[in-house]
Design brief:
Layout: H1 9-17, H2 20-32, H3 49-68, H4 75-81, H5 93-110, H6 123-132, E1 139-145, E2 154-160, E3 164-168, E4 174-178, E5 182-188, E6 198-203, H7 211-214
Helix pairs in contact: 1-2
């Protein structure tokens, strides 16, 4: 006795929704000829279980080491910890006198005065070097300023910030001198005794940059009419 083939339930439903030709096409392409993926998430046969466990262990260790790496401090945290503040016991003029001697040797070298062949420099020649020089250790004096109380302030530069110079005076006091609308006088000493020192005047408003940014900046000569 011949058995009657049972019709597929998907084919029955497709015939109810589509025409016979469309139903046969959809059933053949979407149901009968659809590829069957066996274990699609199976591991790579080339990688054995031992290598896989070692890889997972190393991956976990790298994640733990990365989480333990300290993050850099923010500007707020640095201010709270007073990282850039000079302690009271280190605000002594005598501590920074050797730094001033090093700065004089540094300036004599970049101005071409270290070999003794030159004794003076012109403003056009010294301008680019003064604009890009480092002023930590320089002997600086305020000669003109909108604030009359700052005129005459003199000392060694201990901190060069974007908008101010911090100097330590002979009275062992650290004072802040804003750069804006202020003219500073720099004194460059020579190693030989009795030799007249060189003096330069710089306009503080043109130095309102960080020392690292000022090294690559080109300055134009102009006068500030507000002084």
């Amino acid at each position: 006795m011949a058995t009657q083939t049972k019709e597929h339930i998907a084919e029955v439903l497709l015939q109810r929704a589509h025409s016979p030709e469309t139903a046969d096409t959809i059933f053949r392409e979407r149901v009968k000829q659809r590829p069957l993926l066996l274990r699609p998430t199976s591991p790579d046969p080339a990688q054995n279980a031992r290598a896989k466990r070692q890889y997972e262990r190393m991956k976990k260790q790298r994640a733990q080491q990365k989480s333990k790496k300290p993050k850099p401090l923010s500007a707020k945290q640095k201010r709270a910890l007073s990282l850039y503040e000079i302690p009271k016991e280190q605000q002594k003029y005598a501590i920074y006198e050797p730094l001033h001697a090093m700065w004089c040797a540094y300036m004599r070298e970049i101005l071409g005065l270290a070999d003794g062949k030159r004794t003076n420099v012109e403003a056009q020649d010294a301008g680019p070097f003064l604009a890009s020089a480092d002023y930590h250790g320089a002997m600086m004096e305020v000669v003109r300023s909108r604030c009359a109380s700052r005129v005459g302030m003199k000392g060694i530069v201990v901190k060069d910030t974007k908008f101010s110079f911090e100097i330590v005076t002979k009275r062992d006091v650290v004072k802040t001198c804003p750069k804006e609308h202020t003219v500073f006088k720099l004194t460059l000493l020579f190693e030989e005794d009795g030799k007249r020192p060189l003096e330069f005047e710089i306009l503080g408003s043109m130095f309102e940059l960080r020392p690292t940014d000022r090294a690559n900046k080109k300055f134009r000569l102009h006068l500030d009419g507000d002084l």
